Amino acid sequence: MIEFGYFLFYHMNMKKFDDISIALLLNDFHNEYSVSVYRGARFAAEQMGISLATFGVGSIESPVQHMAMRSRLFSLVNPEDFDGIYYVSSSLSNYIGVERFRDYVSGYKDIPSAHVGIRHESLLTFGIDNYSGMYDAVSHLITEHGRNKIAYISGTYGVYEADERLKAYRQALLDNNIEYDERYVYQGSFLRDDGFAAVKTFLDERKLDIDGLVGANDHMAIYAMKALQKRGISVPEQVSVVGFDDLVSARSCTPALTTVHQSAFDLGSFAMRRLAEGIRDNNIKAQHEQLPAPLTVRQSCGCVGSSTLHTGATQKESPDMLSEQDRGEWEEQRSFVNLMTRDLIGNFEVDEIFSVLRGQLNYLGINDFSLAQYVEHGQAEVLFDQNGHSGDIFPENQIIRGGLSRLPRPYYRHVLPLFFHEEDIGYFVSDIGTRDVPVLEIIRDHLSGALKGAHLLEAAKRHAKSLQIEVEQRTKELADRTIELEHALNVVQETSEKLERLTVMDELTGLYNRRGFAALSSQQIAIRNRNNSNLLLVYFDIDGLKTINDTLGHAVGDIAIKAFASLLKKVFRSMDIIARIGGDEFVVLAIDCTIREFRIIRRRLDQALDEYNASSNQEFHLSVSAGAAPCISESTYTIDQLMEEADAELYKEKKKKKKD
């Protein structure tokens, strides 16, 4: 066993590493485990003066489309730019196994490499003691809590970590005189949804009586625990639950999850240090090194008392844990991101999108950001550069104009893909900027959608213009063919009308978008300011939409958005102006409406939400928060003033909900 702590960096001669460049390949910055490994690797790189470029390449051959689309980034990893490659291999190979993964990356076999989370005799690999950690967890349920009908949710078969943990589960049963029964094992793939599916399989299909449940990772264990609780099964009184990883979410769920602790941060740091030393000394050896994985006992297994107890080594304080000051900065950054993504969604012109980036990125500490689109024959074109360069065409595997070699050392860059459904758009490259790296994924999601919308609008404009030119030409050539001319003019008119609707309507819900709402509501407010009539602006926010997207997928999130839009149209009148102005944000300008009348409307809306939740058979619970701002007395108002007041009331309601 190799135990690792941050103090080991203290005596290192940093100057020996400042000419080393490493590419770090992980699946994405949504995954809590991958982010922790990345933070550890980045911490080590910064301490050692190593240049680091991180690529979010997805999970290879993932059945989830938005993960599979990321693999396009592999073509950007140029062997000539890097002295070594650092793979978060457990996440990259989750769907294909170690052998096929080794073949997949064989094009980089001449570059020194390190692999985190797998084991292979021909590779330099790093991990934690998966076997001992899982063995201790299962044995704890048997010896301390008397559990003998323990179900198990495995990871992907053929993946080293998953196989080791399954072996340990089986051996712990046998060593405690419990027969191994395959009916008690559900094959998962380390995804949250596997937790729900496993409970359904164990209880409904196999009709098993279980008193313990172990997940091969925390995500599956936590969602299995939620599924049990949803059925009225008490955890831990009726079923003890244990996970593996000790993610932040394991500490915040109820009851707190007993789990096997693996410091992904320490592992990430350790692997980066070993890889850099091997590159420096020209001595990369195929071997496996691992860190201990002690059991962390909390309430979900049935233990009571202190909220956290390590049965093995004491958990160290990780440098990536947020201090109070860091947490305040994190909240402020998230606020800036919300404003930026709202502005991105509301724009349909490429130049306006780039203007938003130019004005907002600095608030996130991002000072070097470029965006490129793929063009033909392995080339890329700079669409946006924070430093003013655009329009240049260069080989895509240079990543940026002039290549990474032009950057001062040490450099730190993140490369994330831009795509919409099955269409590759390009990628962006960002400096280290925000320490809250998942923010980059939020920017990626919204920027991809905004660029696709802008491209559609631009194509519609070009089509309308080409039709107009065609009509003009045919008018000159075929002046006597009146019927054909009228048909062409009708096509132009229909295209123009569709184009107009596209600029003011939200495609997903059929409601007005921000631009359409601003135009119509400004007219109504001007009328109100003249005749002093009643107007009420209501700001709505769908509660927990990000959680729905993260846990159930964006397709289910879209169902929630469309459902709420339908309910708004149901409870408000046809004269009222209803709009979706952001991802989870809606606004209504109610004509001739007072606060008292809105309370009646709100009760109707709450009743409609209850009816929807009772009948929809969806896994999410649809709820909203609202804030209302009336036009009172003889004062004059602007739409921005009303939206600010309503947003403030919305914030009060959300704050009250959190307290409750």
What is the fold's blueprint, element by element?
Blueprint: E1 21-26, H1 32-48, E2 51-56, H2 65-68, E3 84-87, H3 89-92, H4 97-104, E4 113-116, E5 124-128, H5 130-145, E6 150-154, H6 160-175, E7 185-187, H7 193-205, E8 212-215, H8 218-230, E9 240-245, H9 248-252, E10 258-261, H10 264-281, E11 287-291, E12 295-297, E13 309-310, H11 324-345, H12 350-360, E14 369-374, E15 379-385, E16 393-395, E17 412-420, E18 423-431, H13 438-477, H14 482-504, H15 514-531, E19 535-542, H16 545-552, H17 554-571, E20 577-580, E21 585-591, H18 595-615, E22 624-630, H19 639-659
Parallel strand pairs: 1-2, 1-3, 2-17, 3-4, 4-5, 5-11, 6-7, 6-8, 8-9, 9-10
Antiparallel strand pairs: 10-12, 12-13, 14-15, 14-18, 15-16, 17-18, 19-21, 19-22, 20-21
Helices, by number, come to: 19
Distance between the termini: 47 Å
Low-confidence stretches: 1-15, 311-320
Known CATH architecture of the domain at 128-263 and 291-310: 3-Layer(aba) Sandwich
Largest sheet: 11 strands, mixed
Shape: globular
CATH superfamily of the domain at 128-263 and 291-310: Response regulator
Average pLDDT across residues?
85
Oligomer: single chain
At CATH level 3, the topology of the domain at 128-263 and 291-310 is Rossmann fold
Radius of gyration: 28 Å
Q: Determine the strand fraction and express it as a percent band.
A: 15-25%
